[in-house]
Amino acid sequence: MTGTQVESPDAAEPGHSRPSTATARCRAWLLEGLSERAARHPGPHATRDDGHEGHAWWRVMCLTGVDYFSTLGYQPGIAALAAGLLSPLATLVLIALTLFGALPVYRRVAHESPHGEGSIAMLERLLPWWAGKVFVLVLLGFAATDFLITITLSAADAAAHVVENPFAPHWMDGGNTWITLLLVAALGAVFLKGFKEAVGIAVALVATYLALNVVVIAVSAWVVLSHPVRIGDWTHAMTAEHSSPLAMIAVALLVFPKLALGMSGFETGVAVMPQVKGDPMDTYADPAGRVRDTRKLLTTAAVIMSCLLLLSSLATTILIPQDAFKSGGPANGRALAYLAHEHLGGAFGTVYDISTIAILWFAGASAMAGLLNLVPRYLPRYGMAPEWTRAVRPLVLVFMAAAVLITLWFHADVDAQSGAYATGVLVLMLSAAFASTVAVHRRGHRAAALGFGTITAVLAYTLVTNVIERPDGIKIALIFIVAILVTSFASRVHRAFELRAATVTFDEAAARLIDEAAASGPLLLIANEPQEHTTGEYRAKESSQREQTHIPDGRPVLFLEVFVTDSSDFTADLTVHGDEKHGVRRLRVRGATVPNTIAAVLMELRDRTGRVPHAYFNWTEGAPLSHLLRFLVFGDGEVAPVTREVLRRAEPDPERRPRIHVG
């Protein structure tokens, strides 16, 4: 095994003093679970353990529901601000896009990505080499926008429910910002302590919250039906503002992009797929039962949410004065809570507020778990993040710092953050629609490709419209994208000289050649260009190397040849194949880079034979800087000195370090 090892917190590097006990304990606490966990954070979106049987799909739906259904806390108010009296009509457009756009797309994503990787992984497979890596990093920037704004917006809306409650102390008046920060800090504290899977809590929260919303909507419907004049007032006001039904439809189509955050739960719906129990006959390669039940999950959640969105939009538009939705108004960010207090009394309204605060806070927990699963899945695998990003607690501190900055930037204003939230949601949905289009097109399903292509176009229009009208979202996303790109590539360069091999194994032929050569002493290996050579070329190479680098006469040599597969990959499992051809004995291996692969093979040969091997190279003509760039981008360059540097960092003891000879 030659993968990167995480040293014990008590270990000290040669020449450095041992860290203090307090420092070591702090580091051990921060990096707890680092060596075992990779994208397996035990939160609502955790990848379940192999021994875990999973949960029924309707229970897993509640994990999505804490994010998806919680938008009822603020979506009706945002819709009223965006569309005014036409809010129900614009909501109908949103529902149509949900049921006939987003839902089919994510049902396809569930089929294409049944292990919770989502649309980002689908697109990663479509684009090769560095283009795919950079594209994924950009999507991660938008995903970070989506999840982080989920945390801050949900906490801000929870704070609005606290402040506007009639039983809240007077000293809380105007305290939205500090209450939001307190909720964000509490969320961070829970994750720092260790947040375990909470399906039961999610089910209880979602069931309670939906039941209370049904009560509020039913009572509101009774009030409206008992006073039909309210419906007449609403329709009269609409016709007074707009000249014709066609004009109303046109306005609804134009403003519905502002309501796009009402589709926020689909990406998380796919992320929770590993929690779905599926069928006993499911296998990793063919989890048909999990896919079927996840599709049930997505469809049921979409239908429930669509009904609640339409009914809540009708109730709030007809029963709440338009001025109450404005910033600072009693219904701003809490339209249904306003109706609960207005028509069911302060006691019921307070219960509703508590339920809303709880599910909004848990939506932040759901988003945090999503981030903690997403970042370790990609960045460390690309070599674009330090190893500590595989641990939960350091990442929690980073995300909490970002959430605090976002909260202060927007002053905990729900309306101001909605544009950024919608941008993140729409980009992820657009990427899913595009990936689905390509997937069905490659399978020859022309009708499905046309349908998904149409959805992609609609989502693209929605995204562009949202960005033009509310550019804050793209600004925040660009900040995250630039930060991720800069830090990722800086980390990649910093880690370029790591060993970068997960495992090294030898096939039967390679093992035989190695054992035979090792019988006469330490292994002697000639690094060679990885193409098919003639017998004469191999003989000439061996002769020149023996002369220039003083390989002992009479000792057998092995030729080591590395084929670069994808230089944008950071780590790889290496399998060394052996053969005898053209009169020489060869060890051939495929890896992401030449020098790191050679170094990893040399280290494994040392461990296998118990003797330090010797490797022989030729100098490569060219400028050092150009060779360095070739190594970073293409995985080759000046191989000898880079191999030596990789070995120096991997093995601090010079006596045990494989020898590098250059002629």
From TrEMBL:
Ranges that cross the membrane: 78-106, 127-155, 175-192, 199-225, 245-266, 297-320, 354-375, 395-412, 418-440, 447-468, 474-491
Q: Which UniProt keywords apply?
A: Membrane, Transmembrane, Transmembrane helix
At the top level, the lineage of the source is: Bacteria
Segments carrying the region annotation (Disordered) are 1-22
UniProt name for this protein? APC family permease
